[in-house]
What we know:
The protein is mostly helical.
Amino acid sequence: MGYIHQAVFILLWIASCGYACARGGPPERMVAVLFLGGALASMALGPPKSGAFNALEPGIVGVDTCMFLLLCCLALYSSRFWPLAMAGLQGAEVLGHLARLIEHPVLPHAYFALTVMWSFPMLALLGLATWRHRRRLDRYGHDYTWSWELPATRSDKEFR
């Protein structure tokens, strides 16, 4: 599909994951490690070929599905909103694979757009989430990580 998007992706991937590992909270770091594991697993299970996106890659489908499920778990327990958006973007990527499975003659460029292009906003979202985490730390001195750490509201106290 071209080398420019690959170079841009790698630079964005290094920048956002490196920033998340160095300056992020636990959810940001977990996603950065998940992205690293996903990249390594994708390279191991479905190495790039000259005919990439001409056929469904079962290994890549498995990696993307596992990442979707892990992001959904993170979204359930995190106190932040962005993991839900991240899981939605990853879910759209998985649906792109499903579209290829259902409609076999999907053009390689369309299959590429349905799957790979979702990774760019996901990396941007990770960088933005890390920046917002740092901003909350600077402003309040603390950033609640998990839903069970959130302070109880008045309505929560009424039910206890």
